[in-house]
């Protein structure tokens, strides 16, 4: 196997072996603590531009199947594992991880102590990293890495450019695509929602012309403050129609209502994050993938109420608008991968659309 | 009505969600919990009131009072009208000048609520009275409507709605009983 190096911005170098695509790459390095769900994670567009490390030591046991894709063209920059399963064992498996990464042109690195790597990331925070095949010296590569400026137009890269429909007979839901996971469409379709997916830069008039019962803002990659035009759209939209936000959508709703977001040191990526619903005290284990979060002290309590918090570090995980039919969560109620504890948030959304419609008919 | 067909319309999770939403709505409508008193109508309304009060307290970090109300003396389908206080003596006039939320499980003809209104007003002059119900099944016989509704369930008069709560029935579920022909 080909030798391959991982070079971190802080000078740490990890030696391992290459698999998947052979290309060199530079991206932001992050880690995911999930033991399974690698297929969903790698194809999750929220990892756009990022080098994804799996802390669990053996990845790929169940191969890659045809059902668990979260996007058709994944844009994860690279995948790092301790060891990947060359011979997967599962009745659904169509190929192994190596073949999959080759097909999708994503480079991989194996034979690295990913737990030590994770400790380094936890200490230094998410940073730039480079996967290289050792053609230059480490010093030269490090200089190249430090000079590189990472792209920030993540959402523009992954959002759909044309509208499309995921039909069902029922409520009309508009989904604004910031890098959506297919499981969101699954969950909405399952609840008889007729879904129209629109690009991230759609104008508010275009959305309202479709007369939706509700609008959903999806998950997505990158920094929410890079999308100022979307905030204007949300400000207008939330007065007129129920809005449900997930992940990036949650951060955008917070920003549109005057709160601030910040970049977390190493983010929440995995699906063992306990989240407490404040009203009931109930804990749900949730699937999460976010590197930014809403700053609790910046929230205007006249406008927004915090409904959910993460237990370990008290990150704001859920918000609800006090005057408009708007709520959002930082985590992924659609799971994929992860526990389905929070799936009833989609029911909450359909109930909100229902009651809003009733209220409007009589008002 | 024998041999009823039983259909589950709301499950445990949905009941929890509805109560949580009502809790939010009460706070939002009342703009806080100032002068708020929750009054549950016996039997199941009492437990709903306690659960909503629990949620509001968690959200606002301050206790909200939840008391219970027995309206049997105020009912219009009984011959003797005693018109004694529906509250237990210790609670007395908790309603004077307060914003009262009457809480019941099912809103149907509105007669129970009429009785509850009389019982509350006999005990003082509340600043405001709201009504929160878990289920609104229609068929009102009096001009009464709910401010907070868990779920609207349109029914026929032949059907009946059964609300089961953990505290009384051992489980949280709402079912419709349809008479079989």
Provide a descriptive summary of the structure in words.
The complex is a heterodimer of chains A (363) and B (181). Chain A has 363 residues and is an alpha/beta fold. Chain A has 2 domains: 3-150, Carbamoyl-phosphate synthase small subunit, N-terminal domain (Glucose Oxidase, domain 1), CATH 3.50.30; 155-362, Rossmann fold (3-Layer(aba) Sandwich), CATH 3.40.50.880. Chain A is built from 10 helices and 19 strands. Chain A has helices at residues 38-42, 97-103, 114-124, 138-147, 154-158, 182-190, 204-209, 228-237, 248-256, 344-362, and strands at residues 3-8, 13-20, 25-32, 50-54, 58-59, 78-80, 83-84, 107-110, 127-132, 164-166, 171-176, 193-198, 214-217, 243-246, 261-277, 283-294, 304-310, 316-321, 326-329. A 10-stranded mixed β-sheet of chain A has the order 10-12-11-13-14-19-18-17-15-16, with helices on both faces. A 7-stranded mixed barrel of chain A has the order 1-2-8-6-4-3-9. In chain A, strands 5-7 form a two-stranded parallel sheet. The relative contact order of chain A is 0.13. The mean pLDDT of chain A is 94. Chain B has 181 residues and is an alpha/beta fold. Chain B has a single domain (13-155), classed as 3-Layer(aba) Sandwich (Rossmann fold), CATH 3.40.50. Chain B is 29% helix and 29% strand. Chain B is built from 4 helices and 8 strands. Chain B has helices at 12-30, 44-60, 111-122, 166-169; strands at residues 4-10, 36-41, 65-69, 99-107, 128-136, 148-152, 160-164, 173-179. In chain B, the strands form 2 sheets. Chain B has a 5-stranded parallel β-sheet with strand order 3-2-4-5-6, with helices on both faces. The radius of gyration of chain B is 16 Å and the shape is globular. At the A-B interface, helix 10 of A face helix 1, helix 2 and strand 6 of B.
Secondary structure layout:
The complex is a heterodimer of chains A (363) and B (181).
Chain A: E1 3-8, E2 13-20, E3 25-32, H1 38-42, E4 50-54, E5 58-59, E6 78-80, E7 83-84, H2 97-103, E8 107-110, H3 114-124, E9 127-132, H4 138-147, H5 154-158, E10 164-166, E11 171-176, H6 182-190, E12 193-198, H7 204-209, E13 214-217, H8 228-237, E14 243-246, H9 248-256, E15 261-277, E16 283-294, E17 304-310, E18 316-321, E19 326-329, H10 344-362
Parallel strand pairs in A: 3-4, 4-6, 5-7, 6-8, 11-12, 11-13, 13-14, 14-19
Antiparallel strand pairs in A: 1-2, 1-9, 2-8, 3-9, 10-12, 15-16, 15-17, 17-18, 18-19
Chain B: E1 4-10, H1 12-30, E2 36-41, H2 44-60, E3 65-69, E4 99-107, H3 111-122, E5 128-136, E6 148-152, E7 160-164, H4 166-169, E8 173-179
Parallel strand pairs in B: 2-3, 2-4, 4-5, 5-6
Antiparallel strand pairs in B: 1-8, 7-8
Helix pairs in contact in B: 1-2
Protein name (chain A): Carbamoyl phosphate synthase small chain
Binding site for L-glutamine (chain A): 46, 220, 222, 248, 251, 289, 291-292
Subunit structure (chain A): Composed of two chains; the small (or glutamine) chain promotes the hydrolysis of glutamine to ammonia, which is used by the large (or ammonia) chain to synthesize carbamoyl phosphate. Tetramer of heterodimers (alpha,beta)4.
């Amino acid at each position: 196997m080909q030798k391959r190096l991982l070079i971190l911005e802080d000078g740490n170098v990890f030696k391992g072996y290459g698999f998947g695509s052979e290309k060199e790459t530079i991206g932001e390095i992050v880690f995911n603590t999930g033991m399974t769900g690698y297929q969903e994670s790698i194809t999750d567009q929220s990892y756009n531009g990022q080098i994804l490390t799996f802390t669990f030591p053996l990845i790929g046991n169940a191969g890659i199947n045809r059902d668990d894709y979260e996007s058709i063209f994944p844009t994860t920059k690279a995948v790092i594992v301790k060891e990947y399963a060359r011979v997967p064992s599962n009745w659904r498996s169509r190929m192994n991880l190596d073949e999959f990464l080759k097909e999708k042109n994503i480079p991989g690195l194996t034979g690295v102590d990913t737990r030590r790597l994770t400790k380094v990331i936890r200490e230094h925070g998410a940073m730039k990293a480079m996967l290289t095949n050792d053609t230059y010296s480490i010093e030269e590569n490090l200089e190249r890495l430090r000079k590189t400026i990472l792209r920030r137009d993540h959402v523009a890269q992954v959002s759909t450019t044309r509208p499309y429909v995921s039909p069902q007979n029922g409520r009309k839901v508009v989904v604004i695509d910031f890098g959506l996971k297919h499981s969101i469409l699954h969950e909405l379709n399952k609840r008889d929602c007729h879904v129209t997916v629109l690009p991230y830069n759609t104008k508010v008039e275009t959305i309202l012309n479709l007369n939706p019962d509700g609008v959903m803002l999806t998950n997505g990659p990158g920094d929410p403050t890079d999308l100022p035009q979307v905030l204007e759209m949300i400000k207008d939209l939330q007065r007129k129609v129920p809005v449900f936000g997930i992940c990036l959508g949650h951060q955008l709703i917070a920003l549109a209502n005057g709160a601030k977001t910040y970049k977390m040191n190493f983010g929440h990526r995995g699906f063992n994050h306990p989240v407490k619903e404040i009203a009931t005290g109930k804990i749900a284990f949730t699937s999460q993938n976010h590197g930014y979060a809403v700053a609790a002290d910046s929230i205007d309590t006249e406008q927004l109420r915090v409904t959910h918090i993460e237990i370990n570090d008290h990150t704001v995980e859920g918000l609800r608008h006090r005057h408009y039919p708007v709520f959002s969560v930082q985590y992924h109620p659609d799971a994929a991968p992860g526990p389905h504890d929070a799936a009833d948030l989609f029911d909450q959304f359909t109930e909100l659309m229902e009651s809003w419609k009733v209220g409007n008919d009589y008002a | 009505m024998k041999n009823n067909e039983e259909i589950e319309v709301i499950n445990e999770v949905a009941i929890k969600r509805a109560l949580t939403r009502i809790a939010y709505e009460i706070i939002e409508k009342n703009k806080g919990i100032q002068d708020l008193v929750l009054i549950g109508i016996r039997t199941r309304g009492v437990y709903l009131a306690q659960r909503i009060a629990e949620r509001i307290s968690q959200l606002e970090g301050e206790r909200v009072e939840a008391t219970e109300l027995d309206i049997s003396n105020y009912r219009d389908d009984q011959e003797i009208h005693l018109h004694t206080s529906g509250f237990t003596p210790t609670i007395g006039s908790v309603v004077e000048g307060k914003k009262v939320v009457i809480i019941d499980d099912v809103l149907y003809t509105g007669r129970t609520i009429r009785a509850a209104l009389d019982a509350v007003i006999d005990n003082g002059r509340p600043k405001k009275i709201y009504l929160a119900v878990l289920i609104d099944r229609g068929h009102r016989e009096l001009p009464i409507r709910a401010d907070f509704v868990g779920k609207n369930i349109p029914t026929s008069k032949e059907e009946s709605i059964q609300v089961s709560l953990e505290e009384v029935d051992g489980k949280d579920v709402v079912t419709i009983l349809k008479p079989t022909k």
